[in-house]
Amino acid sequence: MPVNYNVEKIGAGIQVKMALMTGWFGGLSHVEMVEQVAAYGFPAFENLGAGKWEDKEAVRAKCDELGISVGAIACGGTINGEGPVNPAYHDTFENEVRAAIVNAKALGTKTLLALTGAERSDMSMAQQMDNVVVASKRLAPMLEDAGMVMVYETLNIRKDHKGYALVYSKQAADMVRQVGSPAVKFLFDVYHQQISEGDVIRNLTDFKDEIGHFHFGDNPGRREPGTGELNYKNIFKAIAASGYTGCVSAEFSKSKDLEVEALLRILADCARW
């Protein structure tokens, strides 16, 4: 399927830097995907695995040409296994982040997504968060020198990721404050935080200084806005009002019979006021 350059610029005028999922543009190369995102008038894309793409430099060149931003890429840690909650993992974690910085520079992103690992039964949660702080302080100078921001993702344990260590916004914000570096923040995934704690707009506003990236999807179902209970126009307004200017990245499965252009119209409508 070739790039269609003659499409409507559906994303023109949106008021957050919305990053589209690359999987919505099947049949295109990575560079062609960037061209299609730009043709639709959207400002960014995200694929957490893009750091491993072999054509990173070509993608970056096309993004620079068309003014397209790149969202986060994965950098280290796991959901159900090891992560920086365990001091024995810290050397591995550093090596993972170091490699991700190289990939991020090649691709043209400044945002690295980290995972804390699963909650451990052999130490208190306070000690585990202290361990994450220690690991983060160790990496902060390297991240700062590279101009990167590493964001720890909070995930819900009620529905999707039972056993994960970092769940609540305040928990993440407290950890970020203890690190004390502009290069270490947390990722606020609206879908996950709605399940874990609700109060989405209050929390993203209260913790605006500690948030370094956003993901979104509706709840329940983790599909496009309008399929669940979240008022995304108001949420995006709150994100914009908080002063955040980075990517707000789609991370959901679109409804099966929904055409891509119809999906893009839904997203654009939520981000325009």
TrEMBL record:
GO molecular-function terms, A-Z: hydroxypyruvate isomerase activity
Domain Xylose isomerase-like TIM barrel: start-end pairs: 34-256
InterPro entries: HyI-like, Sugar_Epim/Isomerase, Xyl_isomerase-like_sf, Xyl_isomerase-like_TIM-brl
EC number: 5.3.1.22
Keyword presence, Isomerase: yes
Positions of the catalytic residues: 153, 251
Domain of life of the organism encoding this protein: Bacteria
A Pfam family annotated for this UniProt entry: AP_endonuc_2
Keywords: Isomerase
Family to which the UniProt record says this protein belongs: Belongs to the hyi family.
UniProt name for this protein: Hydroxypyruvate isomerase
Lineage: Bacteria, Pseudomonadati, Lentisphaerota, Oligosphaeria, Oligosphaerales
